[in-house]
User: What shape does this take?
Amino acid sequence: MSAGWEVVIGLEVHSQLATRSKIFSAASTAYGAEPNTQACLVDLGYPGVLPVLNKEVVHMAAMFGLAVNATVAPRSVFARKNYFYPDLPKGYQISQFELPIVEHGELFISDADGNEKRIGITRAHLEEDAGKSIHEGLDQSSGIDLNRAGTPLLEIVSEPDLRSAKEAVAYMRKIHTIVRYLGISDGNMQEGSFRCDANISVRPMGQEELGTRAELKNLNSFRFVEKAINFEIERQIDLIEDGGKVVQETRLYDSDKDETRPMRSKEEANDYRYFPDPDLLPVEISAEYIEAVRQQLPELPDAKHDRFVNEYKLKSDDAAILTSSRAVADFYEATAAATTAKPQLVANWVVGDLSGALNRDGLDIATSRISSTALAGLLTRIEDNTISGKLAKQVFEAMWDGEGTADEIIEARGLKQITDSSAIEAVVDKVIAANPGQVAEYQGGKDKLIGFFVGQVMKETGGQANPGQVNQILKQKLKR
Amino acid sequence: MSLSKDQVQHIAKLARLELSDDEYAESVMKLSKIVDFVDHLSEADTDGVVPMAHPLDVAQRLRSDRVDEADERDYYQENASSVSGGLYLVPKVIE
Amino acid sequence: MMDSYSKSMTELLAGLESGDFSSVELTESLLGRIATLDEKLNAFVTVTADEAMAAAQAADDARAAGNPGVLNGLPILHKDIFCTRGVKTTCGSKMLDNFISPYDATVVEKLAGAGAVVLGKTNMDEFAMGSSNETSYFGPVSNPWDLTRTPGGSSGGSAAAVAARFAPAATGTDTGGSIRQPAALTGTVGIKPTYGRVSRYGMIAFASSLDQAGVITRTAEDAARVLGVMAGFDERDSTSVDHPVPDYVAGINESVKGLKVGIVRQHFDAGLDAECGNRVKDAIAVIESLGAEAVEVDLPNIDYSVPTYYVVAPAECSSNLSRFDGVRFGHRAENADDLMDLYCRSRGEGFGDEVKRRIMTGTYVLSAGYYDAYYLKAQQVRHLIADDFKKAFADVDVIAGPTAPTPAFRLGEKVDDPITMYLNDIYTIGANLAGLPGMSVPCGFVDGLPVGLHLVGHHFEEQTLLRFAHQYQQVTDWHTTCPEGFE
Assistant: This one.
């Protein structure tokens, strides 16, 4: 970004709430059904139908509010947002306007220098999702599928505290982690259950007044959020430096061309004519209810991270990866509890080999081919020197392919580590005798050759000699 | 207070209503009368009065999170003029 | 069988129970009467003859089997605003002229569950917007007392049909007076219960915070009978109140001695036709003779009720009617160029003038820059009016006055000036704004045209209204007079 400019970013995240039924009707919210097979009369906006509020939605919103240190409103009101669009069957969206259910929250991210930065959350409110439009393959028409209409959404609005695309992504990731931790959303961006809009403006460094902002809509991956924001920042700066003015408008990000462009259908400013929905009454939440929700909150990501650092003595970066999802964290802790191996070793394996295998096969921790118990078993065998760390990788791959437990594989392949000193000594003697030249060079000062000898001994023992002992015995026998 | 034709056109567009020229003329006249009539409300002293959105002073009841609706798409779509493959059709929208 | 049409529900029930006639015979006879006489009134949009005969047969079977519902075999009509599964439901509009509802309104379900036999769907002002039944797409309804005059609205078809003895009861809806005013103009009984007393599920919405379903009959006892079935909590309506439903029929026989009747100072002023006023004063004197005490009450903000209503109701309806866009049901414009064209022409063609006018009024008062001055202000004034009633009810059990400012006016007389038409609801609107129950009872005639006595009660005091009305009807016979040509 050109020097002398400051960028101001606010994010609006729309997270679907993972309820079984819709916010105002008893139709299913399950993804992927045939068009309009999960759109009941209430969702279709038929004449005479009425909305009734899903209690789980209130519960989930309250959980979110508490997780971000926000106020959960004792009284909140649903309002109608009026506009016409085919995916909005009633011609209005039931949302919340003046009195949202959650207000004045915060969360913490790391800024560019690695320092903790507080990002304010202005509000979070409940609303219903619209349906979907299909524009391809229907000749001169667009097709409307209202299955999604009525799915509950929590719209989370940040203060304009973000100052770079990286900060924006960090914030978005944090929200993503929190909603998944709480179990209130599956955060699936491909399926559209987690969406983000960004409001971006630029101003000369030091200026207090905000520049005109543009809104970027429906950025559906972390990567696109970053690229879109960066493009938009440059676009606005270039525009102003060339003597132009930023227009307040809504823009879409085109990932193929890596650019933003104005959205045609939103060209006209909409007058939403918000007013309290007369079909719904104010939502009242007691202090007792909020306290009960607080008691049941799971351990949140930041707290879990700090506990992992303190309790397991892990590096902050490892802890961050392990606590990026509750499922991974739970897997880690289950493994650590079931093995004698040190927590750092467990961390290395979960962050390293296990993650690698999951990524390679496109799986997530829930569908891991090695369970926490099984992994614990393998790590215990490293700890008690039955096998070396290097051989353990082989065993891991065999376990991943379904060949059995660690013990079964070690037994079947005869991989037990050789720790018998006299046996190792015998091999070392053999290798030393077979390589007089290298012995001479080593004794002449080429210390690096120890690696060659270790390699030879390992080759002779099929990798099963305990490396530590090999090293020690070699050094002793090669002493000048 | 008289409404102008521009105002009425703007309102009609917001409300997605097509009016003929005659209808516009009549609307401007009648809407202006209505607005004049309701303007009397400004005479009422409402300092500190809470707006009443509902005649009842009760809170919203909550429904348990259960799926209770079956697929009746084909029956419902008997009322739709234009459907294809289960989708409701409208003139193509470009985004 | 010849004069069964004049019988009240109570009398018909007795006749059915003692086997004097069957439900099939009764239904057939009334359908015949409708076929002959409705061309004079145009009270029906749809006559459901086949469905009625089937329901009548089922009712007779149930009676024979020993498990009849409380309204078993009794004929009833539904205002065409209530969704009836498999039957055209038009709301008096071209927009829904082709709409076959896929579900039954709660009110329809409850009455069918009690064994009532539906003879048809009655004509109404389009989307319940009107006070004369002249805005219907299906043509105006005539008042049986004078075919050149309106029966009032918006439940004009229901009121005219009951007055013409096509059925002893017809459902209606009341947002600003749409049950009570037509009841007054046709010499029938009309009751609008407390807001939240009867479910709005399946009742096509006009103004959600004001709409209530009710019934039009010829006697208070019949109204008690039907209301007892219609009322009750419905989990499908968030604004439905979980309040026990008393036995309205049992309660009407208690005396009104010692109860206090409030007379509103502001009501008997220049806007009220003098002779109407006299009929109402006579009625109040009758009630006093029954032992009730008349007391003056003050509703200082009542003059704001009509302008308040004409901000709130259009605002809510402008939003409620946005769903009518031709996409999933209802009228759809042909060969639309684009989406804007589809919406604007479908709605422009499907809605009548009054509906379009109210949608535009509502859009205006909610729009940016006007919301505070109009909508917010109106909701504040609404609160003042509700508080006025609350204070008055600290001293009285019921408030009495005229239902309408004039008797039935001529067709076409008031259509040019919207404000003149709106002022027909001047006495009834307050009850809707405050959510209070209201009732109209026939109390005399002016030049051969009926006049109604208006009663308003405190929240959930339908029982008190029915009691007053029934006791009044025990000592008067206005409600037994039949319009000429319909004897």
Notes: Residues 5-289 of chain A form one domain. The CA atoms of residues 228 and 258 of chain A lie 7 Å apart. Residues 222-241 of chain A form the longest helix (20 residues). The mean pLDDT of chain A is 93.
